[in-house]
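>> received
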Amino acid sequence: MATEIELKLKLLPSAARALPGHPLLAGQAPQHRRLLNTYYDTPDLLLKKRRVALRFRKIGRQWLLTVKSAEPASGGLAVRSEWEYPAVPGVFDFAPVEAPELRAELEAAAPSLVPIFTTDFRRSTWTVAYGESTIEVALDRGHVASQGRQAPLGEVELELVTGKVADLFAVARELQERCHLHPSVASKAERGYALFADEPAAAFKARPLPLTAEMTPVEAFRSIALGCLEHLQRNEEGLAKGEQPEFVHQARVALRRLRSALRLFSPILPANFVDAYGQAWRTLGTSLGTARNWDVFVNETLPPLLAAFPDDRSARRLAKEGRRRARSAHRAVAAMLTLPEYPRLLLEFTAALLALPDTAAPTTTEFARERLAGHARKARQLATRHHALGAAERHQLRIRFKKLRYALEFFAPLLPPRRLKPYLAALTQLQNELGRINDHVTAEALIAEVLDSRASGPVRGWIAGRHALLLAELPEALDIWMMQKAPWKNL
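>> returned
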C-alpha cells in the first residue's frame, strides 16, 4: 500500500499555457502520456458512499487496477491510501488490497460492479527538487464522460514523492505567483459521479467531526479547522453562480465556525497565528454577511410584510430594491472568489494549520470542559438579566449563545449523547429565537437604507410589532435552556 499525499489545484486555460514556462519547471522536458480510466461502482453507488474509488487505467498497452480510500480534502490537500497493480480489464482481483475490511467489502461488491464514468486526459509531468523534498508536478487536461455527457478537466496535481509536506505547499505557492491556481477539494472521481448523477450542485453542510479524546488540543483544532475549510470550499461552485441563497448561508456558517474555533482554541495556539488568521478571513466574512442579510430580508422577512400590505407602494418598492441589492451582494461574493488573494489564503492557511506546533497539555477533554464551562458562564451572566437588556446587549447575548453552540458541536464526539441532545436542542431553539429577533433589528436598518422615514411608517410599525411578539417569547426559551444539565460536567 502507498500513502498518497497531494495537492489538487484547478486552473484556467491561460494558467495551463503559462505553467510550463514557470522558473521551477522551465528547462526541464516534461514527460507526456495519455491516461484513459474507467471507474466502477455498484448500481446503488456503494463505493461512493464509502469514499472509495475503483478504476481500471490504461497506460500505453498496460492495464492497472487502482483502489483509493480517501479522507475529506481541505485546502486542496488530499491524503489517500492507494493500491495499484497490473490487472486484466473487467477482472476484479482484490488480493493485493492490504486492508482486510475494505478488501472484504470490495469482494462482496464485485459481482455487482458496473462502469459509471470515464476520464480521458493527457498528463504532462515534471520532477522538482525543492528544499528537502522531491515533488511531482502533473498537469492534466482532458475530459470526464458519463451517460453521454461530457465535462472538461483541467488541473494541476502536486504529489509529495519524498520529503516534507511544507515543501509541497512552498512549491504550490511559487506556482501561484505566476499562475492562477485554485485549491480544489473535488477529485476526478467526484466530478465523474456528479456527471453520472446529472443533478444540480446542492449546498454543502458541515460534516460530523472525527474528534477523539486521544487527540491533543492542537490536533483537535486542526481537524475542526480543516473541516470548516472543506465546508467553505464545497460551496464555492454555488457561490460563483450566485443563484441560491443556501450556498451563501452555508459558506457564511463555515467561516463563522472557523473564526469561532480560532477564538475557542486561542489559549493553546500561537498568538501570531490567531492574530493573522483571525483577520485574514474578515473581508470575505463581511461580504457573505451582507449577502445573507439581504437574502433573509427578501426571502423570510418580506413575504409576510407584503401579505400584510399588498397595496402599499413603499412595501412594493422595498421588495424591488431588496431583490436588487441581494443580487448585487451575491455578485460581490462571487467576485471575491476570483481574486488571486482568495486561493492564496486557502493554501497559506492550510499550510499554517499543518505546521502548528503541538502540545499535549492540557488534554483535549480537560480543555473542552474548561472552555465550554466558560462560554456557558458568560452566556448565563447576560441571560439572567434579559429583561433589562437593550438591543446591543441582546445582540451580544445572541453571539455568546452562538459561540457556545459552535463549541458544543465541535466537542460533541467527547460528550455524553444522553445529556448533549436535550441541551443542544434547548440551545438551538434559544439561538433561533434570538436569531429571528436579530433579523428584525437588521430589517429595520435595511429599510432605513432604502426608504425615508415618512414613506416607511406603516412598514416600520409592522416590523416593530413582530419584534415585540418575538421578545415576549424569549423568556420561556431562556428558562428551558437554564434548566438543562451541562453535558460537560462529568468529563
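>> The chain is about 55% helix and 20% strand.
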